[in-house]
Write a structure and sequence with these properties.
This protein has a single domain, classed as TIM Barrel (Alpha-Beta Barrel). α7 runs parallel beside α8. The protein is globular, with a radius of gyration of 17 Å. The two termini are 14 Å apart. It contains eleven helices and eight strands. The protein is of the alpha/beta class. The protein has an eight-stranded parallel β-barrel, surrounded by six helices. Bound molecules: phosphoenolpyruvate. The site of phosphoenolpyruvate has 13 residues, from β8.
Length: 256
């Protein structure tokens, strides 16, 4: 059985002090909600800014929450000003890292080849990559959604270690931060395509074991409907993850 994963992408929000205030309020509420009693099947992750990672790791220690990185470089050390070393993320006991988020692709020129190198580098140090894929509005309107997301998936997995885990996040670019949500049918279809592609590119076991999250303007008001789709195993949440109560409500979404 796949875990249901609720992941926060804080993007470039929150200072170390704000991170502290968030977890001080959030963690007791999460424990009290009872979700934490079933940690094997409900994972709660926070992709925090790199500058908050160290503080966040200390704050969540001993809780049922994991902290991850939003970006990583594929070399371990060297003259790569401003980049995050996978080895250092591992030393900070960071279990997850995002790869290929659409903002990295669109604003920082991250290519499919680079996502492959990042997945390989993360696997090499025992960190689970969450590979983000998703089509632009133009690609959707041009009928190219499936082709684009399968290409991004295939490229991102090209250099992976097949013995290690991955998580996939389907995030239609037109739904990120826009308030527009994919309809359950649109999301359900994309997730089914990705599940099938995982089987073709890897194996039936990989397809069965890999959580595929939906991301794009998920809020407490729309999360239950999205979670009802068969192949949707959780959410990657931007805006609604910044407030304690809205993110807690998303963590409590029932998976039908
Ligand atoms: C994201 O950044 O991954 C995201 C899904 O953002 P939002 O929830 O704000 O659309």
């Amino acid at each position: 059985m796949r875990p249901f994963v609720v992941a926060a992408n804080w993007k470039m929000h929150k200072s170390p002090a704000e991170t502290g205030a968030f977890f001080e309020a959030f963690l007791p509420k999460l424990e009290a909600s009872g979700i934490a009693k079933d940690p094997a099947f409900r994972k709660v992750l926070f992709f925090v800014p790199a500058l908050d990672l160290y503080v966040a790791q200390k704050l969540v220690k001993g809780s049922h929450v994991c902290v991850g990185a939003q970006n990583v470089y594929w070399e371990t050390k060297g003259a790569f000003t401003g980049e995050n070393s996978p080895a250092v993320l591992a030393e900070l006991a960071t279990p997850y890292a995002l790869v290929g988020h659409s903002e990295r692709r669109a604003l920082f020129g991250e290519t499919d080849d680079q996502t492959a190198k990042k997945v390989k580098a993360l696997h090499a140090v025992g960190i689970t990559p969450m590979l983000c894929v998703g089509e632009t509005l133009e690609e959707r309107e041009g009928g190219r959604t499936n082709e684009v997301i399968v290409r991004q998936l295939q490229a991102g997995l090209a250099e992976r270690d097949a013995t290690k885990r991955i998580i996939v996040a389907y995030e239609p670019v037109w739904a990120i931060g826009t308030g527009k949500v994919a309809t359950p049918d649109q999301a359900g279809e994309a997730h089914a395509v990705l599940r099938k592609a995982l089987a073709t590119l890897g194996s039936a076991a990989l397809a069965d074991a890999t959580p595929i999250l939906y991301g794009g303007s998920v809020k407490p008001e729309n999360s239950a409907e999205i979670a009802r789709q068969k192949d949707i195993d959780g959410f990657l949440v931007g805006g609604a993850s910044l407030e304690v109560d809205s993110f807690l409500a998303l963590c409590q979404t029932a998976k039908a």
